[in-house]
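Researcher: Following up on the earlier apo prediction. This time include the ligand. It's zinc ion, with the SMILES given after the sequence.
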Amino acid sequence: MPTVAVVVDTPQHSTVRGPLSYAADEALPAGALVQVPLGRRTVCGIVWPAGAEEEPGVELKPVAGVLRSLPPLPASWCRLVEFAAGYYQRSVGEVAHAALPAELRKLDDAQLAQRLKKLAKLAPAGGPAPQLPELTEEQVRALEALAQGGAPTALLHGSTGSGKTEVYLRAVAQALQAGRQALVLVPEINLTPQLEARFAERFPDRLIVSLHSGLTPAQRLRHWLAAHLGRADIVLGTRMAVFASLPRLGLVVVDEEHDPSYKSQEGARYSARDLAVYRGKLEGATVLLGSATPSLESWYQAQRGRYLKLSMPTRIGGGALPRVRLVDMNHVPKEAAFSHALSPPLMEALQQRLARGEQSLVLLNRRGYAPVLQCLECAWKSGCPHCSAWRVFHRSDRTLRCHHCGYTERVPRACPECGNPDIQPLGRGTERLEEQLAVSLPGARVARIDADTTRLKGTLESQLASVHAGEVDVLVGTQMVAKGHDFRRVTLVAAVNPDAALFSSDFRAGERLFALLMQAAGRAGRDAAQAGRSEMLIQTWHPTHPLYAALRAHDYEAFAAETLGEREMAGLPPHAHLALLRAEARTQEAAQAWLQDAARVADELGAAAAGVTLYPPVPMSIARVANVERAQMLLEAASRPALQRLLSAWLPELHGLRGAHKGLLRWAIDVDPLAI
Ligand SMILES: Nc1ncnc2c1ncn2[C@@H]1O[C@H](COP(=O)(O)OP(=O)(O)OP(=O)(O)O)[C@@H](O)[C@H]1O
Ligand SMILES: [Zn+2]
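Model: Understood. Below is the ligand-bound prediction.
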């Protein structure tokens, strides 16, 4: 009887790491889905190309069932999964099964055959042949360079409003013409509906499917199957879609490639952007990364010729980018600076827009009414009993909410410690800003968009639609409104309080702030007719900071050059490679003790000689969440392979360390961590 290697879903800490061996009646192709006995259960498995260990003398259990109606997963898909598992240090089974739709793993062959029949219902949207805009010279040049190829990965650095989406559409059209499939990734699920509409309009006779976490399990299965069978020509999705099975993949687009949402924060903490680049090489597909503010990692690769660099500095219609004005808060009357955070220049700019019937966007990256409530008599503040964090005051439903563990209570009528009825909000979030703007601008239609106002399905779409329809004069929002949207009537963007990130302990905070502000600025003056009088206002206590100087000049390249120089001096990415080992425990001591022990093992494995530096364990910036203490330890190496080799030798050892550490709850490794 033939032996087959089968990958089953195994938790990270189980002793089963690689494929298991089973007996089969017939030779089964690699990539086939099967059902196999595991302990007392029958589970879904994937026949793996190679690698099951033979155990002589052990009688193998037989494969219980085969999903014959499903064509096997392509070999390149198995290799992608294997690479991701190896690189991010998780088991192949975990990564492989997380990449498949949950529904698929529950079905037997007969049920699957039923689902496949229903697929016939998926059809192209139809509609009239699209009107193609005439390409700008920059778009033509970018597309020609892309078509000539050379490097399989290209970085499209295009200003906000330079027409990057049109380049994606044309590149997709080329791939389709060549008989290939295209995968288009966007950072946020919010951005999928508008993108889907644009693609459907452009490709009325092609089947387009989406893959993201907002789909029902049945939808996700249907869309996944359409991609896997090669019926769908275009797949649009969020980071999870990078694992879609696409037998004819020819192009991967990663829009807003700098966006942190491409990095998963749980399970295998993979970067969909980085995997897309790997996948492109593996499958001979072109990878097109696009952004107005590329990640410094991608920029660095483009600078040294690893990626093909495509530039589109000019906005469509020739409109200028908004003029950036810094409002020095040190010179603003105290009352305006502290009690309502709206400086006279900002109020004046808002009033001008109102008078002209134009829209303004006011950005504050903090939701809720106020980040903390305090008692004016005693020292009480609205701390979370379960976390080392304040609970946020939400006025709309009069609650105190912890944004880390979710613990929510009604706002007390008086101070819970001393009974003083005078408890006051400290600082401000978007709710309070909205209220202050409504009071200061009588008659203005003020609206707010953030995670709180868009919790219900469809609310974001309807809120955005009313902004587009001109029913809103002043829109208050978090970073949610800063990216991607093609607002046509906004001529003022204001950042109320962006300074905090300038002094963060996270070395990437500046890069993120710069990208956010530049993206936000890009929402203004998108209509060339209004671009001349569009501006961005930044309220700051540090007007001489170099980050703001680069922003004023819309000079991404200067910012990137300066920051890359600093990173090189400090030995930070992209000039070095990092991994974070995180531990969660009942006490901070227990978490750190485990990390110490792990560091000892790394020393014994020769970390130092291999060029891998281990830094001492430290508490995470929010040390306690939901009564769990968290600590982390940073590893750094100049060479990526050296770091990878150490991790591969080290992590299996760590599973064995658990026993000696009673208070330890969980641990995890984050390779190429984004936030430190
Ligand atoms: N060649 C063209 N001719 C006319 N209009 C165009 C052309 N290319 C793009 N546009 C239009 O210009 C506007 C801006 O384009 P798009 O939204 O693609 O910009 P973008 O580069 O993606 O910007 P952002 O980074 O801000 O999202 C859109 O309304 C789009 O329809
Ligand atoms: Zn909490």
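Model: The chain has a mean pLDDT of 92.
Researcher: Noted. I'll compare it with the apo version next.
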